[in-house]
Structure formats: structure tokens, C-alpha cells
Amino acid sequence: MSTRDWLLEDSPTSRWQANAGRAYRVFTALLRNPLSVVGGIIILVLILTAIFAPWLAPYSATGQDLANRLAPPSGTHWMGTDELGRDIFSRVIWGSQITLTIVGLVALISAPLGLLVGAISGYFGGWTDRILMGFTDIFLSMPKLILALAFVAALGPGINNAIIAIAITSWPAYARIARAETLTIRNAEFIAAVRLQGASPLRVIVQHILPLCTSSMIIRVTLDMAGVILTAAGLGFIGLGAQPPLPEWGAMISRGRTFILDQWWVATMPGFAIIIVSLGFCFLGDGLRDVLDPKSEGK
Amino acid sequence: MSLEPQIAAAPAPVSLSRRKWGRGLSAILGFVATVFLTFLGLLAITFFIGRVIPIDPVLAVVGDRATQAVYDAAKISMGLDQPIYVQFVQYVGKVLTGDFGMSVSTGRPVITDISRFFPATLEMATLGIIIGVVIGVPLGVIAASRQGSVIDQIIRVVGLLGYSMPAFWLGLVGLALFYARLRWVGGPGRLDIFYDGLVSPVTGLLLVDSLVQGEFDIFWNAINHLILPASVLGFFSLAYIARMTRSFMLDQLSQEFVTTARVKGVPERVVIWRHAFNPIRVPLITVIGLSYAGLLEGSVMIETVFSWPGIGNYLTTALLNADMNAVLGSTLVIGAVFIFINKISDVLYRVLDPRAR
Q1: 3-class secondary structure for chain A?
Q2: Which residues of A touch B60 (CB under 8 A)?
Q3: In this predicted model, what pLDDT tens digit does every residue of B241-267 receive, in sequence order?
Q4: Whole-structure pTM value
């Protein structure tokens, strides 16, 4: 029996085999969608770049070379150099680590928070639901960027506070999704069966409801990542996110502002990195949605 | 457990029209309650940001170079010796009377600053949404009627770029290209320096003021400066509006009444623009409203790039100077306008679409 047959077995003999089979089916379905392949490759390249930045970057991210300041793109400096003679290509490569950290941490903070709020709200219903969802709706109807700005202003500039501020403003959408999913499954018989066995609400939610919310959550988180990258870059651009000399892409664009009229490459190059990575998340998210949630295809 | 309130709320047997009235009234009351709660939530959030997060809110307002006397006076005038709920009630009272405190960096009351800067933002966002609607809606309709065509592909790409391009970056590239290279448009700011201050602000909207006062030179100069930032904003609303229009139109075009119209021999142009387009006008209003609110928010980034003297620029300057009163004041105003537009488009949807009543 080949690995492929084992994965596609109609009657899996273990939970592990069932999960692996499902993952394999999603994976092959994704491979048939060209855009999601492109998206996946972009994300993969981002991750590899972040991991291998020390070996990939031809120059250091902070090493200055004032004799070579504001040099245009050339064979030695692929994206030119900035006002301190730092190689922009190397800085963009190092910057991928920062972008990946921001994206990862925001997802790690806001998705579980939203999941928990939504699942509790949907599972218990009644006043718990009303209060939690009222709270969620209030957050949902606020302008996210402005709110994030105000939070950073109070917490103080810096990359950690930027992550916290973005996470605070992005959980409500996940809470809404988790609640909707919970409502459809909370009256299912298998939940009733678990409850009759004496499972506590905590156990029902964590062990039996949350796992079923994950696929719609993964889609939404992937699609939202483009927005998170843009917000983080915006905070960096205004000067409230990552602080110099960190090679954060938004902050790099901000430094290049002064030279935009004559040395266009200083500000434009990091922008291309932002666009490509955001596009990658959009493509992958779209593909995942088509595979995992065929109902909403084409919307 | 969850059934109880529904049983309690079962309608009493009254005549149809009275019941309809009653339902309308309770819908209005419910709406007012949501709006009220949302605004209260906004106030609670800004209160939380201003008073609870900072370790020393007084220091956050007066700055760390203030003398002890100023510090003590500020502490008492902010009511920080009171319990927190009293502080919140006082805060709400102050905001309702338009008292957002003094701005440390400009030395004027925040409300004066905001009323001076807001029209510039309004002007830019309004022109932006006009661009977005005028181009985006027809593009979306055409894309849907010719699915898979070149235009359809363009809409797809534009839509994706709209989601993944930083607005401030597009603004910078636009400046470098259309202002520095091609010299097609005016540079940063609302006017060339030698036109500055010639028009006395009445509405604060330069285009209106200059026209009313017959200063056509200034009008053209203002347009020249406005067109690039407004187009950048317009691009983002265009991306969203075209995408949504396309998706609404596709829903309509697959309906049976469209097929019927086609079979009857109605010209394709009429089928698309009358039979299919008319029903989507209502959801489009919601989309446009949301997009307009989004533009007010998006202008924060754009204004920084174009040195546009609007509320976004005011907010970012205040952020960098840790001028908390100004930050919270602008957050409140932008947030309130954002919520207001959202709710208005929600109401319009309900009023215009009989199915949603």
C-alpha cells in the first residue's frame, strides 16, 4: 500500500490517518489552483528568506558605507543604497524577519482570542452572548487603523506595542466567525453525547467546538494578513511601529520619503516587497477559501 | 433557555397596520439604542486609552517638561482625584459639550483645531469617493457582463492591488511620477505657496470657497493639488466598489428574470443597465457608504505623504508629539463620523430595500 493510498483511504483506522488524509486532499486541491500555488510559493519564500537572512543578504542591514550613499540600483547593489549607504536589498531581506514576526504574532494573539470569545458567546447564548457580541460589534464598527494608532500612542511607539495594537483591533472579526460556527454545531448530537458523558463546558468548547472552527478561521486569518502587513507598515511609516535602525519595510519607505523626487529607489523598493507579500497572502487565502469553503466561491 | 425571550416577545394580536407600526417603532428604538451604545463604546475605548493605559495620564497630557504646579492643576482639572466611574461620566459630559481639552503642540483647544482641519479631509475623501464611484461602478458592471474578458481580468488585478498596496506608498510613487517627473499636478499641500491665505475660509472647502469668491485661479490651483491625493484614495475605493459591483451583478445576471428578458428580445444594454442593475443599487449604497467611511480613515496615511493640512495630518503630528488630547479628540471625531456613515448606509439599505424592512 503506497503512502498515497494510505492517505486517501476511505475508512481511516486512526484519527491521525484521517487528519493526514484530509490535509493531503486540501493540499492537492490547492495545487490545482494556480493562484494559490503562486501565493503559497510567495509565503514559502518569505519564510525561507526570514530563516536564512544571514546567509542570503549580501551586506549587513545596518552597516553604513557613506562613500556609497544613495547609489542607484546596480550589479553590486541590486536595489541601490539608502542615505547612509546601506544596501537596500539586504535590508529588505532582513526586514522579512520583522514582517513575519508581526504577522505571526498578530495571528497567534488575535485568532485564539476571537475564537474563545466567539465560541463562549455561541455556546452559552443568552446574556453572555448578548454582552460579548455587543462588545464585539462595538469594536467591529470602529475604524481599525485609527484605533490601532490611538493604542500605540498610549502604549508608546515600538514594534511590540504595534503588534499588540493590531491584535487588539483584529480579534472581533474572528469572534463573529467562531460564534456563527458554534451556533451551527452546538445542538449537534455529538455535542449532546459529550455533554451527557459529563464533559464540562470548557472541555466541550476547547476539545469539540474549537477544532471545528479552525478551517474557516484559517481562511479568514490568511486573508486578513495582507491588511495586517499594511497596517504594520503604516505604523512604521508614521514612525510608531518598528524604530530605526530596524529594517522594517514601512519605516524604510518613510526614510525614503525625503529622497522620493530624485532617488526614487529608496522608498519604492521596500514597497514592492510589501505588495508581493500581501498579494501572496491574498492569493493563498482565496485558494484556501475555494478549497475549504466551496459555498462562498467567487464572492 | 434561549427560547424564553422569544416567547415573551410574541406579538399581541393587533390589526395588521398597527402591528407594522409597532414593529417599525421598535426597529427605530432598537437602532437608536445600537447607535447610542456604539458611541458609548467609542467613548469608553478612548477613555480607556487616555486614562487607563498610560501609567500617568497627567504626564501624558502636560508632557514631561511641565512644572509641578502645572502638573497639580492638570491633575485636578482632569478630575483624577475622583473614582474611575465618576471620571468616565465627567469625560462623557465634556465630550458632549465639545470639550476635548487643549492641544499641547498647537496651544489651541482641540475642537478648534479639528474644525479647522476637518474640511480639508472631507474635501479630499469626497472627491476620492466620487472618483471611485464614477469609475468603479461602470467597470464592475462591464466586468460582470463580460466575464473572463480583459476588463474582467483588469478588475481582478486592480481589486487585488487595492488589497495589497500601501496607500502611502502609492501616494509617494504618484508624487515622484506625476509631480516631479511629468509636472502634471501640483505638489504637496492644498495650494501653491503664493496663493496661500488669499481665500477666506467660509466652509473650509477650498473648491467651494474659491468658486463663491470668484477666485478661479485659486480654484484651478486647488484642483491641481487635490487631484493626485484624491485619485490615490479613489483608486482604493474603486478597487473595492468595482469588485463588489461585479459580484452583485453576477448574482443578478444568473437570475431567471434576466433570462426571461433576454428571451423576450430585450436589448442586452437594457437587460444589463435596467433589469440587472436596478436591483443592485440598494446594496451598492451600503458598499459606497462603507467605502466612504474607509476613505476618511485612509486619508490619515495619504495626508502625511501630501502634507495635506487635514485631520489625519493633525492626528499623526499629535501622535509623534505624544499630544494625547489631540490624539483622542481626532480619534473620537474620525471614529464618530465613521460609525455615523456606517449606520446611515445601514438605515438607507433598510428604507430602500422592501425585503429588509
Answers
A1: CCHHHHHHCCCCCCHHHHHHHHHHHHHHHHHCCHHHHHHHHHHHHHHHHHHHHHHHCCCCCCCCCHHHCCCCCCCCCCCCECCCCCEHHHHHHHHHHHHHHHHHHHHHHHHHHHHHHHHHHHHHCHHHHHHHHHHHHHHHCCCHHHHHHHHHHHHCCCHHHHHHHHHHHHHHHHHHHHHHHHHHHCCCHHHHHHHHCCCCHHHHHHHHHHHHHHHHHHHHHHHHHHHHHHHHHHHHHHCCCCCCCCCCHHHHHHHHHHHCCCCCHHHHHHHHHHHHHHHHHHHHHHHHHHHHCHHHCCC
A2: 154
A3: 998 899 899 888 888 888 898 898 888
A4: 0.84
Is A38 touching B (CB cutoff 8 A)?
no
Find chain B residues with C-beta within 8 A of A146's C-beta. Answer: 297, 300, 315, 330-331, 334-335, 338
Mutation target vs B (from A43, A230, A258, A299; most B CBs, 10 A cutoff): A230
Residues of A in contact with B324 (CB under 8 A): 153-154
ipTM of model: 0.85
- Whether residues A275 and B49 touch (CB distance < 8 A) is answered with no
Q: A260 — contact with chain B (CB < 8 Å)?
A: yes
Cα B233 to Cα B123: distance, rounded to the nearest angstrom: 12
Calpha distance B66→B178 (Å, rounded) = 45
Q: How far is CA A83 from CA A164, A246, A265, in A?
A: 31, 15, 11
**Tens-digit pLDDT profile for residues B278-320:** 888 888 988 898 888 888 888 888 898 888 888 988 988 888 8
Contact A153 B41 (CB under 8 A): no
- Cell 506595542 locates to A161
In which residue are the cell numbers 459580484 written?
Answer: B247
